[in-house]
Specification:
- 71% of the residues lie in helices and 0% in strands.
- Helix 4 packs antiparallel against helix 5.
- It is flat and about 65 Å long.
Length: 97
């Protein structure tokens, strides 16, 4: 025997029906505290220091990462000699600058 009951109620009504506590006021207080902490810590954050932390070698590290990604893409595409030569020419130009 199967019994199917469809109830049309809001989440608040379902919580009340099941006897669950309303946690919304506590969640609001926690969100307010989190906002205060984040906004107070934003003044201590220096964008340049954040970039240095993420990319220790700076722009050179980014270029090396890009070269590595291009190399992997070339090898995945079959390592065509034309792509390798043009990539090598670009890196030679960068080194010469």
């Amino acid at each position: 025997m199967k019994v199917k009951i469809d109830l049309d109620m809001t989440a608040e009504e379902a919580r009340t029906l099941m006897g669950l506590p309303d946690l919304e006021p506590m969640q609001q207080r926690l969100l307010e505290q989190l906002e205060k902490q984040v906004s107070s810590n934003m003044s201590y954050m220096d964008p340049e220091a954040m970039i240095r932390a993420v990319l220790p070698a700076g722009a050179q590290g980014l270029e090396k990462f890009q070269d590595m990604m291009w190399g992997m893409a070339r090898s995945a595409m079959g390592g065509g000699s034309g792509a390798a030569k043009s990539g090598g020419a670009k890196s030679d130009t960068k080194k010469g600058e």
